[in-house]
Amino acid sequence: MTATLTTTARAGWFTEAEDRLREELTEHFARQVEPHIPAWESAGEIPLRDILTALGERGMLGLRFPVERGGAGHSAWSHVVLAECLGELSSDSVGMSVTVHNDMVAPMIAEAGGPEAVERHLRPALTGRHLLAHAVSEPGAGSDVAAVATTAVPVDGGYRVSGTKQWVIAGMYADAYAVLARLPEAKPPFGYVLLMVPRSAEGVTVGPADPTLGMRAAGVAGSVRLDEVFVPQSDRLGGHGLGLVTQLRQFEPERIVSACRALAIAARLLRDTRARLAERSTFGESVGSRQEIVFRLARLEADIAAARQLAYTGIDRWVAGGDHRTVSAAVKLRSSRLTRRVARECLHLYGAQGQLTEEGVNRAFRDARLFSISTGSDEMMLTALARLNGWADD
Amino acid sequence: MTATLTTTARAGWFTEAEDRLREELTEHFARQVEPHIPAWESAGEIPLRDILTALGERGMLGLRFPVERGGAGHSAWSHVVLAECLGELSSDSVGMSVTVHNDMVAPMIAEAGGPEAVERHLRPALTGRHLLAHAVSEPGAGSDVAAVATTAVPVDGGYRVSGTKQWVIAGMYADAYAVLARLPEAKPPFGYVLLMVPRSAEGVTVGPADPTLGMRAAGVAGSVRLDEVFVPQSDRLGGHGLGLVTQLRQFEPERIVSACRALAIAARLLRDTRARLAERSTFGESVGSRQEIVFRLARLEADIAAARQLAYTGIDRWVAGGDHRTVSAAVKLRSSRLTRRVARECLHLYGAQGQLTEEGVNRAFRDARLFSISTGSDEMMLTALARLNGWADD
Amino acid sequence: MTELSTAPGLSTAPGAPAPPVSRAPGGIPTEVFRKQLAEFSAARGELLAADRWESQDPPVRELLGAAGAAGLFRAAWAVDEADRPRALWHAVELHTAFARLGNGAPGAPLLTHLDVATRLLATLPAAPAGLVERALDGRTTAALAVTEPGGAGSDLASLTTAVRRDKDTLTVTGEKWFISNAPYADHLLVLADDPEAVTGSRTGPALLLLEATAPGVARETLDTSGHTGLTGRIRLDAAPVHTVLAPGGHGLLRLMRHWIHERVMVAVRMTELASAVVDHAAEAAHHRRTFGSALIANQQVRFRLADLSAQVLETRAAVHHGIRLLAEGGCPMAYAAVCKYRAAELLRTAADEALQLSGADGYRTGHPAQRALRDGLGLALAGGTDELMLLQIDRG
Amino acid sequence: MTELSTAPGLSTAPGAPAPPVSRAPGGIPTEVFRKQLAEFSAARGELLAADRWESQDPPVRELLGAAGAAGLFRAAWAVDEADRPRALWHAVELHTAFARLGNGAPGAPLLTHLDVATRLLATLPAAPAGLVERALDGRTTAALAVTEPGGAGSDLASLTTAVRRDKDTLTVTGEKWFISNAPYADHLLVLADDPEAVTGSRTGPALLLLEATAPGVARETLDTSGHTGLTGRIRLDAAPVHTVLAPGGHGLLRLMRHWIHERVMVAVRMTELASAVVDHAAEAAHHRRTFGSALIANQQVRFRLADLSAQVLETRAAVHHGIRLLAEGGCPMAYAAVCKYRAAELLRTAADEALQLSGADGYRTGHPAQRALRDGLGLALAGGTDELMLLQIDRG
Question: Which residues form the signal peptide (chains C, D) (predicted)?
């Protein structure tokens, strides 16, 4: 994206304080994170704890949560700023892992956790010293969250949880997992519990995942096995039986924040590609000035600019307490597909160079492909949109 | 399409005799038909009888039918040549009307008609003096042919037919209609009859259609009402109760022939657009030489060249007696969508000029939009492909 | 589908730590105007019947007169600088409402009248007194004549229409085509080359006011596939200039600024046309039956509609941001181009898909999607082609 | 999905008036070879295991050796001009079969060996005696080194690798990258500029044979996202030339002709890779369950698969026609470009869609669609980019 269009896209949506936050985060990431990414990616591991601690020390985690729960009492717009700055990083293993911690699990504790859960999990998480991950997916359940087989049996003072979760992003790094489990009498949407399970709890076994297309440094856990793990009632998020409802409600704003990160990735790729093409020439002409390429990039810019407005609209609805479900599904769908397309087109424009695994554009292509699959696949979003529009299912 | 690619695409598929036929037809159409098209289109009417009579006199109708049924005993490739030459005409009202006569209705008589039906309907049709149309669609039935409400009640020596057909292309010009009707005890796929109904029969009322996007000179009948029309048994095509089967079997080859016409239209539009752009310049540069336009046209050329091979493969399967159902559905889908896309892109490249109703490219855009809707909509073809691949329905 | 068309309410979200203040574009109350628009359409149904707008002689003047008399233009007109946001959001309401009347067709001349001709005139100090006022009352209308045969719409450097001095009068000779509202205009705003600097001190394009009935002015309605009966050709044969609106060398600059406004407004209209056809297709899919069940029972139909609805929401969000930028006086050329390009793309896609979902019924003239498909082709050219928009986006 | 891969039978259609003779490409009996291929894959399963081809050190030499020993290359090799059609259709069988083995990966070095290096060598009279024979037995292999860092693949006019005379020997200096099979090659076919006409009477690109183990030749395996472990970088520092295969000014011409063949064969491979992932996705959709039913029960899934299957049939038809034209010695550059472009487009689309249909499972390394997506990116560049193909199509 051209700088002008990005500025124009943000006009009216962000306060001056948020602009300053963006500057601070940009500078922090540029100095403390981005330079290390090639080495981290090469090693297949990121120092997530250090990354989060540095953010925590600067007071940049949980900005939107109430002060009394360890946050800064700012609005969700500050989380959008973080999401967009994460999208500027050339590794979405970093972006996604931070997002899981700060925008997927922490909000559920902030909004549905009791005082003890807040003390035990949220406050330390916001210092960056207690790492959170989300153990929701299960073998065979796919995007059908209600189909979890993990069971929580109520026992004295809490639950005994047994089951296996898979594909837990940052699961190898995390100290605690948010786990959705069904009660023995589960009947969707009721009969579920959402529990915070420390990795150190007895009966928890975590194993690495098989290699994946991208997200190679995201510490993906292939399995989080829970074998009769005791979880005290005070680590339950939301009411007994209301776990699925708490979880589903959280997905909606989370998807808009993810979309903001996706669109920032797309905008960065476009900017980098534009810069690279300006330098590169074939047949004695700058590649970037060729009309076909000008049009190609401009089309993508227009698409990103438009999708950004939808994302901001969604955030605004959410912040202002309006119904943001439709916008959430729409922008998740649009941004996932768009970022995937932008990454593919940019990769193409990098030619042979783009084939190298270590190239940023190659990594971005591989990382960004996940958006259409995870945290609400394209197909899930289409289904949700149809339902929200009142178009009946079969 | 460039002339070279077109020649290359045909290599190995057509005989020298068919190449000569193409030359004759091309010359005939260029002299006798194309010059009149602007006037015909402006009047909203074509002299279909004259057009067909001229073809009949030259022995160019029904070429693939057996000699003993009035044909020339050639192969279906001769009909492909006709279809492609029809696609060269700037009015698909002509192309579609001739196709309905020669490649939709005539084949059903040639293949499933008894001796009397052949004498009464096919032989005169192949002289171009007896015009055939296909009254298949009904209000409310859409592409679901089996849902026809028109009923044929068996009576002494034949049937009494009542019902209303709609959207009959060339219906205003026709002398006889192929009509699919259900027997009182119909149970799909059995219990239907396919009948040839003369327009002059008692109880037949034909009315014009409301205006449509394209096909404005195709003599579309908005309704063909049949009120207790008596049809003798000798005018039945196929067995008693086998009308739907006879009809459905006919659709498969017919769609491949239609695809050949569609692709010829697409190739012509591309050729004309290329020629026009070569002349036109803005900002002091030939528009056609701009890289974006070069790529755009080349992409479409590649798509047309590929789809042509699928069409020829389908024709070949059919001629050689192989299973051509899958190819038929695939090429109908691909060619309809492609021709629609080519027409839209060419229209765009004509700029303001293309907005004029009388411009060939504007008419082509409007005419070609029908392919994705009629004679097997895109959705029907996708459904058929899924079934033929063995992917079960809900 | 209209959920983004108004500002969200300011209710309190439980647990939201920051005060729930919306930062979304809009927030201007337009309910009263919306009601006024509904009353107008109820009262003037005969003017808005879709079939009247399929003829070569649609009731353009009657519509403009009625709308002016009902105060619809003045409601969307800023009395001063501070009033601009209110006026712009009222204009959005106007174009949104008209996108759903008469298959969207009557909205075309209305936008040309208000947001092309009248608004351009109002920015030109040399415009004759009272002209804007009469236009706002719907008593007169003007047409902006820029495009010429042969040249691409975007290549204005190669104007062949020229103004010359003929004794004491300035006259214009040349040809313009695809001029919206030309058949119905009282005045023509003509962009013409001034090779001899007769309109000022510099050569280059000048913007001139002509009376449509002046000698040497010949107009005809073009037979276009979209915007039926609304677009004209103008032949000027030494036609006398009434007023020099912008002298040689200044005409294009005036238009450039004007086009930012026009493009965003056209984008509003295209987005709402798309929204209307998607809603119509969804509604129809509940009634149309194939193979024994309603069309909407097909998952692929629901997915296609859902996809389109997401595109509508997205484009509307983008376009409303454009309105906000206009309201604040700071919409860059590139952003207006984003709005125009995206909306054109949306309308093309939505109309074509909605037509497909309607089957043979969609092929019928009079079907909303079919009309939108045809009109969308012309709208994509109005105010600059896709390619021009892309070049402006590239320039940032 | 394989129904177009063989010539249709010659059964008699009832009522067909003309003798039912197929005019389709092919018609060469390949059943025996197909059986041989099936036996090979059954016997050498360990060489073809997908995970071995995800390492940086896949068993390329073992595979080539085994395939050569089993006579697979000779079966697809023409002994004379008249034998060409037979050989080409056998090559099609070979690439079709290998597209379904080991996630399609082992087919990559095999195509490079047979249809790039060996076939090019065979067209060069100056090639050392016995080289082609040894290659056909799978005992040696060569790599064609054209692409250079920095330059676009298609801009061969700006070669920086150059051949010079150093006393009695010719030496080459420069760098090549993205060279298929380079890590495993015995010989390198290097395109190098000859600025001083030391290889012949003209300046310009020459084609040179180098021994891969010669002094001054350094090779490394590139870490590419597709074609894992198969692609290399070659640094040449005054490396001695073994043989001048085509002198200065003639190198490019030789390659141009060769590329027609290569592009059509790469298109065969891409089409069959696409076909394999679509079939895999369809099969998996019967087993994968979401929301209580098999994925295939979703109409939108069936439609997407049906759409892809139509694209596979179409591209296969186009590519097989290309083989026919090659067999008849008359495939124009533009048609080869059509095959290559269409197949690249198909593979991109099919792999991406098949991955999507597989959900999180598709994101896993080792999933056929995921592998095809990565390999497809490289294949789209092999033998010329999309853009070069489009320019050649434009030239007709």
Answer: none
